[in-house]
Write a structure and sequence with these properties.
Blueprint (H helix, E strand, L loop, with lengths): L6 E5 L3 E8 L14 E6 L1 H11 L3 E5 L1 E3 L2 H13 L7 E3 L4 E8 L4 E6 L18 E5 L4 H10 L3 E4 L8 H4 L4 E5 H4 L9 E5 L5 E5 L2 E6 L12 H14 L4 H14 L13 H8 L3
Parallel strand pairs: 1-4, 1-9, 2-7, 5-6, 9-10, 10-11, 11-12
Antiparallel strand pairs: 2-3, 7-8, 12-13, 13-14
Helix pairs in contact: 1-2, 1-6, 6-7, 7-8
Amino acid sequence: MSESFASIGVVGSANADVIVRCHTLPRPGETILGGELMLVPGGKGANQACAAAALGGGVEFIGSLGDDGNGELLRSSFAKHGVGTKFLRMSQLPTGTAIIAVEDSGENLIVVAPGANHDIALEEVEWSLFDVVIAQMEIKPEVVLQAAKSAQKFILNAAPITEVADELLNECDVLIVNETEAESINLNRVPYSVVTYGKNGAACFEFGTEIVRAAAPRVEAVDTVGAGDTFVAAFALRFALGESPAECLRYAVVAGSLATLNPGAQEAPPTHEEVLAWLQPA
């Protein structure tokens, strides 16, 4: 695998994650007692930015935070992980917040209040700085489309599940979704689509036709909340370096699996060296 440097721009959400662990997730209408409450930095965009930095990329986060304590929590996390904030906007709206329940198996349920994530502005972004730009659907669709049209190479993580306009799909170089999200999207419109299947790995499709599949390594998951975002970041980094879909997929599956070994999202991603250590015996 190439050891070259990739520059990644991440346009997306940044949230304060309010997490409570429980034995089993509540059913509709059910109230349960949980464990200790945790407040940690999160949001799909921020998670992907921190994961890309952990894996060795040069990363700028392009988003919006409130001028509040939760915003400071996220700014501190970006600084800790080496994520650039040149294009970070400070908003009058509160920082986005996610309420997350995590059961003992590692599965989770998440509800997000977007707040400042709906106040992102892209007018001052220098798109030529980035080999690849990533975006997700926790921000306004028109912002995602603007980023897609501006980027040299664009990867869309169409999560959380939502309707994705054909105009946006036509701008994607790579689309990344899980198996549930894939059911509502026409994969035939995108040069490369990646569908993740949790512990069963992932597959890559070229204009809707499967071309390669990768199995996930068997690990004892502690928390799956950041696994998908680490997968996206890992795939984007290798794609930016010009590696084949098979190489990108294999790397991303291992990185995503290793991210389940630690709690939370932004502290969970492995390093590039840790991923390589798992790949070398293969």
